[in-house]
Amino acid sequence: MSARIGLGSVTKRVAFAPIIGRNQTVLRTLIPKRGVQIQSLPSSASEEILNAQRLKRPSSPHYTIYQPQLTWLSSIANRVTGGALSALLYGFSLAYLVAPGTFDSAHIVEFVAGLPDYVKYAGKVILAAPFSFHLWNGLRHLGWDMGKFLSLKGAYKAGYAVLGATAVSTIALVLM
């Protein structure tokens, strides 16, 4: 009769299946649960574990395996020039606050006037190059914020334009 209704194969499977397979609650109670030992750690121990894990992670971008690209080199250079220019500005500002008589305009002009010409030009290049690069690369980033130069070709064109504009403006600033 069960074959007439289409239950023949289902009935045979249930009838001949082992008892454990039919009853999931029995199966759950027969298999012992694995015990997990939990231990409270002080906050310093958990911090040491995290620091040990962080030391094993590679830096990103991992410069030992990736070929240097204009996009990430210019990004790193933009951060470095921004940090260096900020450190220079804050350093001079703090020096002026500590010793205003030593770091006023008259003393600085007098000091620079006494330097040899090659030191003056080297100093101008050291100041003008990061300033120019950071300026032009900042404009490049503003272009990206407006949705321009977002393709790979556009990013490289803008990157080379930044390098060219940096070279020209550095020379112009040095020769002033």
Q: Quick one: how many beta strands?
A: 0
Average pLDDT confidence is 84
Q: What amount of the residues lies in strands? A: under 5%
Rg value: 35 Å
Low-confidence stretches: none
Distance between the termini: 106 Å
Biggest sheet features: none
H-E string: HHHHHHHHH
Class from secondary-structure proportions: mainly alpha
The global form is: elongated
The number of helical segments is 9
Q: Helical amount among residues, as a percent range?
A: over 70%
What does the secondary structure layout of this molecule look like, with pairings?
Elements (H helix, E strand, L loop, with lengths): L1 H4 L2 H9 L2 H4 L1 H7 L12 H13 L14 H29 L6 H9 L3 H29 L6 H23 L2
Helix pairs in contact: 6-8, 8-9
Structure description:
The protein has 176 residues and is mostly helical. Helices cover 72% and strands 0% of the residues. The protein contains nine helices and no strands. It has helices spanning 2-5, 8-16, 19-22, 24-30, 43-55, 70-98, 105-113, 117-145, 152-174. The termini are far apart.
Keywords:
single chain, mainly alpha, 176 residues, 0% strand
Give a quick summary of the entry.
This protein is 72% helix and 0% strand. The protein has helices at residues 2-5, 8-16, 19-22, 24-30, 43-55, 70-98, 105-113, 117-145, 152-174.
